[in-house]
């Protein structure tokens, strides 16, 4: 069980690093005469939209916890916990709208909405590794399946560090440093998106190799895992691409200044991705199709 701690520890570290990034990049854009919230978001957050989003994520969190406890799938604990934090983040937008100059409220809201997606991605990394090891064969994976979660979570941490460095440079009063900081921040986000795209290619390659060997995926007990992995990953990728375009447009860009896109292209794809696992919780597919005499890995 010792090696199971590694990806989960990395996830926690990623959350902490992301908190620094959020603090440095978002709280430094205040403009004289504007509230903190209006200076950062360029709009007044909707309390009704925040309540609806928080409620939906709360329901999803409860359902995911039920799924997890019913199946005793402790390796997937990061998913419902992250969803719970995100629901809190949305609910925090309500007092944030009422106290637009409160830095503590703003920071909690930012922390709890920006960082949970890292855990959503980590859940997919872990599921991929368990699927390859328990259901098919290691030769279908370009990367050692036991190491996939570690490698990609480390990649996410690295990109958080890059984004944090960019956010720190944006604090500078020098125009050149501020511009460099924005570019570094955008580069970090692009690298993060490319890293996740590589993971999706990894899944697609394994899928293609399995089909090439004559497996009828739809008829296999583990078949749904490939579908839900790719579907949820596609939903998360929509959010990644949105964030890149949003940041690329700058502080006054169209996407940044219209709250509706934050919910439609950020919050909603993430919700769809995690809700996939409410309907198709992967444990039953992993257990029903586990290879005989397979060494059950405890590395996740």
Termini separation comes to 8 Å
Using the coordinates above, name the CATH class. Answer: Mainly Alpha
What's the order of the H and E elements? HHHHHHHHHHH
What's the architecture, going by CATH? Up-down Bundle
| Biggest pleated sheet | none
Q: Mean pLDDT score, rounded?
A: 83
CATH topology group:
Rhopdopsin 7-helix transmembrane proteins
- Would you count the extended β strands for me? 0
Total number of domains = 1
Radius of gyration: 20 Å
Instruction: Report low-confidence residues grouped into runs of 5 or more.
Output: 1-13, 19-31, 292-300
Classify the secondary structure makeup into a structural class. mainly alpha
| Principal-axes shape call | globular
GO cellular component, one term: membrane
Organism: Suillus subaureus
Transmembrane segments: 49-70, 77-98, 148-165, 185-204, 225-245, 260-281
Membrane topology: Multi-pass membrane protein
Q: SSE layout and pairings?
A:
Elements: H1 5-26, H2 36-41, H3 47-71, H4 78-98, H5 103-114, H6 116-135, H7 145-170, H8 175-212, H9 223-248, H10 259-279, H11 283-288
């Amino acid at each position: 069980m010792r090696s199971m701690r590694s990806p989960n520890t990395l996830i926690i570290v990623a959350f902490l690093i992301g908190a620094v990034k959020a603090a440095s990049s978002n709280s430094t854009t205040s403009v004289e005469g504007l509230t903190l919230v209006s200076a950062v978001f360029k709009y007044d957050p909707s309390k009704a939209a925040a309540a609806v989003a928080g409620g939906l994520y709360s329901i999803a969190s409860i359902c995911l916890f039920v799924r997890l406890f019913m199946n005793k799938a402790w390796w997937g604990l990061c998913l419902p916990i992250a969803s719970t934090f995100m629901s809190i983040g949305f609910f925090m937008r309500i007092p944030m709208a009422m106290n637009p100059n409160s830095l503590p409220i703003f920071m909690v809201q930012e922390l709890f909405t920006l960082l949970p997606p890292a855990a959503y991605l980590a859940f997919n990394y872990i599921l991929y590794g368990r699927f390859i090891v328990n259901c098919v064969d290691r030769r279908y994976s370009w990367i050692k399946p036991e190491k996939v979660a570690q490698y990609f979570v480390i990649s996410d941490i690295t990109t958080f560090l890059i984004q944090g460095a960019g956010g720190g440079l944006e604090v500078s009063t020098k125009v050149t440093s501020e511009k460099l900081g924005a570019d570094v921040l955008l580069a970090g986000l692009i690298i993060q998106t490319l890293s996740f795209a590589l993971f999706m290619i990894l899944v697609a390659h394994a899928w293609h190799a399995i089909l090439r060997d004559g497996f009828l995926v739809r008829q296999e007990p583990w078949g749904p895992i490939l579908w839900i992995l790719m579907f949820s990953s596609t939903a998360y990728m929509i959010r990644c691409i949105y964030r890149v375009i949003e940041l690329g447009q700058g502080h006054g860009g169209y996407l940044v200044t219209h709250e509706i896109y934050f919910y439609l292209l950020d919050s909603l794809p993430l919700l769809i991705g995690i809700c996939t696992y409410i309907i198709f919780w992967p444990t039953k597919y992993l257990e029903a199709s586990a290879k005989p005499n397979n060494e059950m890995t405890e590395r996740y």
